[in-house]
Amino acid sequence: MVKTVGKKMPGQKKADPNVRVFACSARVFVESNQTVDGVEALVFADGQFTMPYDRFQFLLDTFKTKKHFTLEVDQGRMHIGTFSQPVPGYLPHALPPGKFVVFPVTDLGVLPNNQTPIGGSPRPVACDDHLKTQTESMAEKPSPVILQVLGQAAAALARKLYSAEDVSPKMVVGLARATFALEKLPRFTAGVDVLFSASLKDTIPGGYEESGFYVHVSGDVFEVGHREMLRRGTSFRDDFLPSYSKRCSESPEDEELDWVGVDGWIEDAGLYAQHASDGTLNVRVHDQSKPKCLT
Known about the structure:
The chain is an alpha+beta fold. 25% of the residues lie in helices and 31% in strands. The chain has 2 domains: 2-140, DNA Polymerase III, Chain A, domain 2, CATH 3.10.150; 143-287, no CATH class.
């Protein structure tokens, strides 16, 4: 399964160095190189993480003699038996990376010591009508979950920026308002309207260029993406490149979710935020919130 997604697709300039692993809907999915594969599994808790493809493949090869093993990831660390190592891009929520038909889990051997499932005689793990309906609904309507996942990730980034050099008390107020609204998602917070960004500057002949991430949260919109600035002579460009955008008025059916873009944004933004305390990060906060919106 992992080797299937490790091959570069025709027309792809270079192979994806990372693999994204999703555990949800009684399945484990892997995604890389624009390819998704999956297998039925006993999932005790939903989640996802990202790690270098070669390292993940090597890790699995060390357990290839085992028919089954339990892989656990929590707080950014992976555990397989007594083995443990850090993994980046961990999130405690996951959605299937695409629409699919839910079938029963037929391999009861994944249960510890071939035990009978709780509740009596053996039955398919994913056969419960409520679970099936819930899974299909999540696949078709990802908005509430993705809003919550991205909101929590963006809020964590905002908190990291508090300690950045040259962040004024006024900017901290704006970041605090943004954090409050982000943690309330998928519910939008009326009165809040904050756009904050963080970027690294490189000097170029005749000017400079900056690249980083941005977050915009308000009473009717939530958007994250990359921000690219270029100053050369008298010309200046400031481009906002959305990775995910959602308006309060949009229904879940209006959304086409790009998990690759979302996952990549979380990873990239996290790398920028690591520079918050070393004095190299340029933080900008544009707060247009109503003065008493949170009082």
